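Input for the complex:
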Amino acid sequence: MTLLNVQNIETYYDRVYALRGVSMEIQEGGITAILGNNGAGKTTILNSIVALIDDQPEKGLIEFDGKTITNMSTEKIIRMGIGYVPEGRQVFNELTVLENIKTGAYTRKGRSEIEADIDKMFEYFPVLKERTKQQAGTLSGGEQQMLAIARALMSRPRLLMLDEPSLGLSPLLVKEVFEIIRQIHQDGTTILLVEQNAKKALEIADFGYILENGRFVASGTAGELKANDDVKEFYLGVKSESSVKGYQRYRRKRRWR
Amino acid sequence: MMDFSEIVTLIVRSVETGSIYALVGLAMGIIYKASEVPNFAQGEMATFSTFIAFMVLTVHGAPFYVAFVVSLLFAYILGIAFEFLCVRRAKNPTILSMIILTIGLQMVLYGLSGWVFGTEQRAFRLPFSQFETVEIGGVVISHLGLATIIASFVLMCLIYWFLEHTKTGLAMRASQQNSMAARINGISSNRVVNLSFGISSIVGAIAAMLFAPIITLSPDLMWDPLLKGFAAAVLGGFASLPGIVFGGYILALIENLFGLWFSLEYKSVVAMGIIVLVLYIKPSGLFSKHYQRKV
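Predicted:
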């Protein structure tokens, strides 16, 4: 079943043409990855979906769970069941860890269920349990990332969108965070993952899109993408052509076909 | 030198006036934290609400608590209406343009209250007299002074409880810190700002009603307290509500000491001097913790 359906959206930042017609379908129960370089428009896709950019997307249609959400306010879209872990974590610096987690449950009712979910978050992230009373701004980058994920999960989203969860984390922490994402997926949440770290992302994703200059240039299952020569060359850093001396003789042209 | 009872009396007097400053400062601080705009219409909004209470008391002859509730209700509606009709409509607002907007509203309300209620000075009476006194531990304090201290203390506790222990309060604090992150958690920043204007208008109205019996009720009522409240907020640090409260008390104490040692006439200059001094030495105020501002 299609959970999120994005059809041909175009987004402008003033005169900057950031998304040039992006379409994708996200199936319920999968992990979908969007890969792309800096400035390709990855974050813009997510921000367009939750309507964080004023009066945008200019064109196109976004449906969540069969309902059009294109002209709805961010708060309403979030209430429909989308969790968003923004780029750069964006935790509430001066609130404590526990308060941060509680803000995530703002859209929900039922105190006992919320309490139960808070305990569940501490099972996912035992580090946070030791720091419930600490201000979130004093946490390390990895802990803040975990806190941001926990906060987004507190609304019990059907779709969790993560924007560069590996940003600024040590390789060991990246591994840990991806392990948690896999765990969350197994517990029944559909995941949309935006990443620069293509290798890691394709390891856990089952479907992927490659974004360049505001357009999807390739898509396919993780296996297909890993086998694609262009993806290998430009995203996974696998060199196929090299001279005897070990350096590349010519630059491969991106063809995407 | 002063003897002990004089010092205690001085402190109690300072707490008494400081409570008013603190409340006015708090009212401004609540809006500032939500929208980064110091609301200069605060004083006139409060004056207008006090006029409503006065009208209910005298024209309709209602008992005091009715007038009190009606006036607070009016204050709340005035606050949210101001936000909804003026502040939210501003197109591409900068902080400066918002400040000018509040000053504009201040003038409108000032003119309006003079037009509707008349500019003459009226006696606004609370059930607590400012001439009857009680003596607590050697300190003589008027009923009104005692009521002021108690009422403002209760109100501060209520605000604290609301911000720290309710879901809406948490949402407000979250939205103040990072409105984007608040929105992606389903918190409507518009609603938070709206509510802040309502609450702050109520706080301001209570301050005005406690202050009105001391001088007389006229459209000029809140000129002086607004300046003092603003100075208190600057002194304590606009970003920290407890800081604003302490700022109010400290300002009143400094003023009283100035009046005692130097000149009673120029007491009001102190507040201005403090604003300048604080902006010169520590612009963030005495008590505000410095975190990275929201981007």
